[in-house]
Amino acid sequence: MKLKPETGFQNYYEAARFDLNWNINLFLTLILPFLALALYVFSQQAYITTLIGWSTCLTLLIVMRVTKKFYVASIFFTLIGVSLCSSTMIFFQTSFHLVDTLWMIISILYAYFTLGKTWGNIALAANTAALVYFILFRLNDNLFSVKLLNQGEIISLCVNSCICSIIIAYLIYQFLNTNRFAESNYLRMTSELQQKNKEVELQHEEKTVMLREIHHRVKNNLQVITSLLRLQSREARDLETIELFKDSTNRVVAMALIHEKMYQTKDLAKINLEDYLRTLLNDLIESYSIEIPIKADIVSRVEMISNKSLVPLALLFNELTSNSLKHAFARLSEGYIKISIERQNAKIILHYQDNGTWREKQKGTSFGLELIESLTEQLDGTCTRSVTQGTSYEFILPDNL
Fold it and tell me: Tell me, what's the pLDDT at 262?
């Protein structure tokens, strides 16, 4: 039967800490009885703490074997190790304490490696306090009371030192080995991440090209629709029907312009609102063949807008501008349209104004006015109309466009 249990740790660092605990406790369980026997033969009081340490290591091995965990075993090992080192140095007056400092170093390194910074600091503080106390209050008495060591005691001291050196070397080796694994793992993960980033960038480029192509094709399809509407309008005989065809054509053109801008922009999720409005206004002026000069003042402090809100917003401005071009400037020598968009108090304020008066049908029979109200509701906003100085609309919309 295999002595060391199968822990199943998925984390390399947890597995390394378990291995370190198991190997050190197993090593000490096998070695400490012989060291305790040697100390007892040479009448060294430290054999008592050595036997306590051996029984502790044996117990912790059993606990780790049963639980397949190391955290509780690490805490007990640290606490008992610090306690034994401190008590040996303070209370064993006639013992030679050179090796005890090595065991202190072992308990500190062990705590840092297996339990982390907090427990490592606790072990360091406790051992330092015991060492300082020994130097201040016990060192002189210890130097006078320690007799010359015989050959056997020197040999036991050498054995004890070798054991400590082996454990310290093993702790350092495990530390370096873990660091080496971390570095190689970091390099591997970095390489994999770079590869995945390249794949994501390639996929993003492919999707961007595909979306641009979709916008381009939608724009072309909408242009086909506008061409069909214009051809169909030529068969109309009365002016009212021709105007209806023109209005429908302009609405389709407004949507086609969105896809054209989306095709041209770098960010397919958003579009420059002011640039879009200027292009839309120029297209509408050309469509209605306005003979008088039209001055346009467009100021937008909302630079970008998402394409999900742009369609109703574009149709809204299309209706407003179309109404101005059809009705407001009939008796004027110069037309003026002012559009301002800004953010105020977590709201977006859209203000549209011209210098003429619309000659609209009654509200109940005006599709254009009904469409403006419907689009405003679709944008979760409200609108106010004024005809005191020309015709103006003020829209208050949520700041989530």
Answer: 65
Q: What's the CA gap between 89 and 46, in Å, rounded?
A: 10
Strand ranges across the sheet with 335-344: 294-300, 335-344, 347-354, 391-398, 382-386
Q: How many Å apart are CA 13 and CA 114, to the nearest integer?
A: 9
**Higher-pLDDT residue of 9, 394:** 394
What is the model's pLDDT at position 16? 86
The number of beta carbons lying within 10 Å of the beta carbon of residue 303 is 12
Distance from C-alpha of 95 to C-alpha of 226, rounded to nearest angstrom:
104
Q: How far is it, in rounded angstroms, from Cα 396 to Cα 375? A: 12
Residue 31: closest CA among 177, 161, 151, 122: 161
Domain ranges of the chain: 12-194, 292-401
Q: Given a cut of 60, is residue 221 above it in pLDDT?
A: yes
Tokens of 154: 């020197």
Per-residue pLDDT, 279 = 84
Q: pTM of the entire structure?
A: 0.52
Four-way CATH pick for 292-401: 3.30.565.10, 3.30.540.10, 3.40.50.720, 3.30.70.360? 3.30.565.10
String of b and e for 212-250 (b: at least 16 CB within 10 Å)? beebeebbeebeeebeebeeebeeeeeeeeeeebbbebb
Which tens digits make up the pLDDT trace of 189-208?
888 888 888 888 877 777 76
Contact 284, 256 (CB under 8 A): no
